[in-house]
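Technical note accompanying the year-one report. For the benefit of new consortium partners, we illustrate the data format agreed upon in the data management plan: each record pairs a sequence with a structure-token string. No post-processing was applied to the example shown here.
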Amino acid sequence: MKIEPMKLERWLLRPCEIDVGGGGVAKLKLEDVTTSIDYKQTLGYGPTNGSLQIRQEISDWFPGTTPDNVLVTSATSEANLIVNLALLNPGDEYVAVMPEYGQTAPVAQFLGCTTKMVFLNEDTDWELNLEALNETVSKKTKIVFFNNPNNPTGALLTSAQMKSICEIASDVDAYVVCDNALRGSEFDGKPAATPFEHYEKGIVTGSLSKLGITSFRIGWLIASNKLVDDCWKFKDYTTLSHSAIGEYLATIVLRRENRERYIERNLAMSKANCETLSNWVNANSRMVSWIRPKASFTAFLKYKFKMNSEDFCERLLAQEKVLVSPGTHFGVDNHMRFNIGCKPETVTEALRRLSRFMGGLPQKT
């Protein structure tokens, strides 16, 4: 079975003048992390599951875990991949909560699984319908997968909702996998709920990427000791070893005092941009609407024009050289993902051009 290119990631490579299509925050510079590198370190492999030191730093960010619950990976993408490789068999069911960053469901299909979708409800501020989830899972369901915080909507699942999801999964003996890559982006400063603290089959994946550091490619998987060991076996056959120099630098980033400083920097940027966007939406309510995000570095804007989201975004790119991401790449049409983790001047200019573009389009109503 062949797997198709990931549309979103190919779309994000398109040349533009103003890029507000991504899902992260403005990137840090190496000098923001350290100005004193150990140049005498050996450029070799480290422990393939991650050093004890970095696993301790990650564990410190996730109360209730120990270093033995952590497997270091090559970013969130490898963590999600090896979870699927370790757990799924042909004929299993894979339930994805949509809209979402669509990396994992195609892999489940590639592995011979049936994929099912449950959609967050925009009419109730992108809340998950737990009844719908309960009706969707079955005895064949092996994984229930979602992002929390959600990418692209910025919605948050509460601890009570997370507990309910775990109870639904437990009834059919399924695993609950939470892509928690946007940890640290929560506007209220409280880390988003994960399934690990509620369920023995709860799994959490994440990385440094959404702290503003994508180049290190350091991520993690958090699960029971046994599942961490099972996934480590698969890592022997995927990357074997993640970036050792990346781990060295990531260990510095993850120290609590540094991590908290980067989170404060990122939230100051995204909160300010969110206010700018809120004012813009209010001024352009005849053309666009939104549900204000509670976390993440993106807003999921709904537009009021007679064209699908890929046509909308293509025309915007062609006419105004502005890149936003089509809602269809997340499973929901007539929307666009707009990055609020950019520098403020980028957001301001993107909105100026977006206003000009939409002002020339025929209204749906």
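Partners are asked to follow this layout when depositing records. The domain at 7-27+259-359 is CATH 3.90.1150.10 (Aspartate Aminotransferase, domain 1).
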